[in-house]
């Protein structure tokens, strides 16, 4: 049985957001997946549900020959990680839920996601690019923001629309948290403008034995703004899960 690490990207980026982690963890078998339509991969229908996204992850694990993995998902990636726990838990050796939450969207948030889908289909990615500054902290360096913006701008509008609609449909994962019985790390950051750190703390409290890591001064994309701190916490957790001696 071959163990490894699965990295699941945020919305609306792709696997390139994990470049620093891939370099630092080069000694561990790792898959940084591109979800349907992102990073040049094929789209699967007009709505990318979390179940569809999880199936893409399983396909990539099979292709890489990995049987069990520590699943690390940031933001949207965390929603997919929780879907993998529900559907493929025998393949989940551990979880890292970063800058994410267990709650489903309220109706107002669902309407915003549907509006995003309509906007990008009609006007392209440039129409939502400025709004993506909320992905990073107000104090982020120009270099980090330009990298984030370039990844976002390169995504196909059809993929972003399909995923936005799928995110609006995602289930409430709170009832699943108490049953998680693998080592779990919850990561949050003090300058996250999209998900209140209090929601991450409550999720950590609901998962038996979960650890909480708080990254100071980082925004929503904590792995890109503070790669050293994020990677250090990830390495420790991978060791806790038995992937590093």
Task: Characterise the protein shown here.
By secondary structure, the protein is an alpha/beta fold. It has one domain: Alpha/Beta hydrolase fold, catalytic domain (Rossmann fold, 3-Layer(aba) Sandwich), CATH 3.40.50. Helices cover 43% and strands 14% of the residues. It is built from ten helices and six strands. A six-stranded parallel β-sheet has the order 2-1-3-4-5-6, with helices on both faces. Helix 2 packs across helix 3 and helix 4 (107-123) packs antiparallel against helix 6. The protein is globular and about 50 Å long. The mean pLDDT is 96.
List keywords for this structure.
6-stranded parallel beta sheet; Rossmann fold; alpha/beta; 245 residues; globular; 6 strands; 10 helices
Describe the structure concisely.
Helices cover 43% and strands 14% of the residues. The protein is of the alpha/beta class and 245 residues long. It has one domain: Rossmann fold, CATH 3.40.50.1820.
């Amino acid at each position: 049985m071959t163990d490894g690490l699965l990295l699941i990207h945020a919305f609306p980026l792709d696997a390139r957001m994990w470049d620093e982690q891939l370099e630092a963890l080069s000694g561990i078998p790792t898959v940084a997946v591109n979800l349907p339509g992102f990073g040049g991969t094929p789209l699967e229908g007009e709505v990318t549900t979390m179940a569809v996204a999880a199936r893409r992850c399983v396909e990539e694990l099979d292709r890489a020959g990995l049987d069990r993995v520590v699943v690390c998902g940031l933001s949207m990636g965390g929603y997919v990680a929780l879907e993998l726990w529900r559907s493929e838990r025998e393949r989940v050796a551990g979880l890292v839920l970063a800058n994410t939450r267990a709650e489903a969207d309220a109706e107002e948030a669902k309407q915003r996601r549907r509006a995003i889908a309509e906007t990008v289909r009609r006007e392209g990615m440039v129409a939502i690019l400025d709004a993506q500054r909320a992905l990073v902290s107000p104090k982020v360096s120009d270099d980090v923001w330009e990298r984030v913006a370039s990844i976002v701008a390169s995504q196909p509008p059809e993929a972003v629309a399909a995923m936005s609609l799928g995110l609006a449909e995602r289930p409430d994962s709170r009832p699943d948290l108490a049953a998680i019985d693998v080592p779990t790390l919850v990561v949050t950051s003090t300058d996250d403008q999209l998900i209140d750190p209090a929601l991450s703390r409550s999720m950590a409290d609901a998962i038996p034995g979960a650890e909480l890591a708080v990254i100071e001064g980082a925004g929503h994309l904590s792995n890109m703004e503070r790669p050293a701190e994020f990677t250090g916490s990830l390495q420790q957790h991978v060791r806790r899960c038995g992937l590093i001696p």
